[in-house]
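Changelog note: in this version the structure field was regenerated for every chain. One regenerated record is shown below for reference.
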Amino acid sequence: MPSIEARLKEMGIVLPTPPAPVGSYAAAVIARGMLFVSGQLPLGPDGSIAPGHKGKLGQDLFNEAGQEAARLCAINVLAQARLALDGDLSRIRQCVRLCGYVNAGPKFHAIAAVVNGASDFIAAALGPGKGRHARAAVGVAELPLDAAVEIEAIFDLEQD
């Protein structure tokens, strides 16, 4: 079974260097064999959000752009996980839960479809079993930096 790193390479994904938190929180916390990764935005390699990943779904953006933003958030989740695990993604036993927040206009109802961009990426990157997770998909009135999507995650870890 290929490693997470091998799957990412096959997918053509290079995990970015994750940004430091800009507030009074930790980007990731390990507790009781679980890794909790704080909400990640669709930041590109330059640390900014592309115009196509800003704004409200159903108003400024539509499903495909939202799914792309969610996928980028999930890439950033794995980048934070790698940093928290000292570069060793093989310690991830399973993604237990993803929570996706979608910056949604008042009549936008495809919130779950947008968050599928993150779920599908995590499933592909972690592989069968490890990538299957519980999930919440929530529409919100606003996100930091006018991001279209924010994704947070919880991972079960192999014990040392």
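Spot check on this record: Residues 28 and 37 are 4 Å apart (CA to CA). The chain has a mean pLDDT of 96.
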